[in-house]
Amino acid sequence: MEEEKRQVVRTLKQEFDEKQGRLRNLEQQKRSIEATLRRAAFTAAQLDDMPDDVRTYRSVGKAYFLQPKAAIMGQLEEVVKGSDAELKKLSSSREVLSKSTDSLRAELTELITSLRRA
């Protein structure tokens, strides 16, 4: 009986660790998206001060392409919209995963205390 409980604890611990790892990955993705948003906002703020007919360079990997300001502003707007949507998805995923992790933690605590009493 006690060995069965220990096996359940090991299984729950593995599941808990896996979910904790996923939570860390979500946080990493969130930080990356937030950095992209800050970069896009900074670039848009710098371009705002320039005249509308100015042509600017847009970096793509290691290459730079000459494009009108309006095209670059449109691309930056798309980046912001996409990033916002992605942040909302990550936030809801994090919420669900966090609740699941909390319930696993409670279950693990309960099992471990019952093993210690026995």
TrEMBL record:
InterPro entries documented for this protein: PFD_beta-like (IPR002777), Prefoldin (IPR009053)
One GO MF term: unfolded protein binding
Pfam family, any one: Prefoldin_2
Gene Ontology, cellular component aspect: cytoplasm; prefoldin complex
Record Gene3D superfamilies: 1.10.287.370
Sections of the chain in a coiled coil: 9-43
Domain of life: Eukaryota
Keywords from the named record: Chaperone, Coiled coil
GO biological process: response to cold
Family (UniProt): Belongs to the prefoldin subunit beta family.
Designated name of the protein: Prefoldin subunit 1
Organism from which the protein derives: Chlorella vulgaris
